[in-house]
Amino acid sequence: MSASDDSTQQPPLKTARLAMDQQVATKERAPDQQQQQTIEEEDESDSMDGDDDDEQMEEGGQPSGRQGGKRSRGKFRRPRNHVNPFSPFHQRPVDLEDRWPEKVFEKPSLPLHVDLGSAYGHFCMAMAEKYPSHNYLGVEIRTKVVEHAISQRDKAGQRNAHFIGCNVNVNLDRILTDIEAFSPPSPHPLPPSIATHPKCTTNDKTAVEQPAAGARGGVECVTIQFPDPHFKKRHHKRRMVNQQLVDIIGRHLVVGGRLILQSDIFEVAVEMRQLFDAHPAFVDTHAADDWQGQPDQNPLGVATEREKGRIANNEPVYRAVFYRVPYDEPGHDAATGGGREAEGDNWGEGD
Ligand SMILES: C[S@@+](CC[C@H](N)C(=O)[O-])C[C@H]1O[C@@H](n2cnc3c(N)ncnc32)[C@H](O)[C@@H]1O
């Protein structure tokens, strides 16, 4: 019998008593715990209600008194479940301090893992604890959510995790360019099955076989996990993964670096996978239509909040893992993956 079944069997008095006990327990919880609880509840309800008709007030706009259709409680106002990434507020360039990577990371030269749409940052913080040899950067559009993630990171005293509140579709290129000044791209060896893939068109196999000596750096891994599906056709343009984002990741991920995609919405998973598969810089570890061969758990060994929810409900998760490969292209440095011009970069279009 499930917990909810059980509660319906309670005699009325006992049910009322239980409810009162719960209220008292909530009041007695430390304010910080209450805030955490509010945020955790909101996280689970995030963006999967199938209706992202989210033209409500933006962060930074006028207060609405209601967030996500529910009245905000206490001092902490629930962050919106969705934002419109095309609103002027979310189209602004992010305001970052000069030389910010050396201010936010204890060792800014460590290889970087970037998590796009990092929400409350649980995944990045768990990874940062597990792998102190790396820096973790979560980029999340809801700035209130990022404030919370940063406060949790500070409480944990982590110096290899950080969060930036902005729209990745506007700011990712700038963020990763800044990082590379402190953590220059350094190629990694590719698994043989990837190094011999026909998409590895470069003649410069040194990029594959001989990674640079010494400490490696650069953007070593990018994760895009359960991005908002924006189900309505007219909102598909709001989806985070588009051709421009794929191209930016292709420019910054080091040769041999990994891109990991996850979604619980098959259509979204297929769309993301096809976009990366069409780019010459990415090789899928499985055939693009092979969902049987996909990893049956998070390849990094740390589940995200949404992933935990799906697993607990025994619901499917669609995963794909790509490697960044070197490839020959005019003006492109195959060994480092750098050197392409951002403008006029229209690979795949009309080819
Ligand atoms: C469904 S949640 C998944 C959160 C987390 N990755 C997980 O797996 O638990 C998607 C997250 O992406 C964020 N997001 C959506 N569009 C974004 C954008 N353009 N830039 C940055 N973050 C975005 C949302 O605010 C939300 O926190």
UniProtKB/TrEMBL annotation:
It comes from the Eukaryota. Keywords: Methyltransferase, S-adenosyl-L-methionine, Transferase, tRNA processing. One of its GO terms (cellular component) is tRNA methyltransferase complex. Residues 39-58 have a biased composition (Acidic residues). Residues 1-94, 329-351 are annotated as: Disordered. Residues 1-12 have a biased composition (Polar residues). Its EC number is 2.1.1.33. This is tRNA (guanine(46)-N(7))-methyltransferase. It comes from Vitrella brassicaformis (strain CCMP3155).
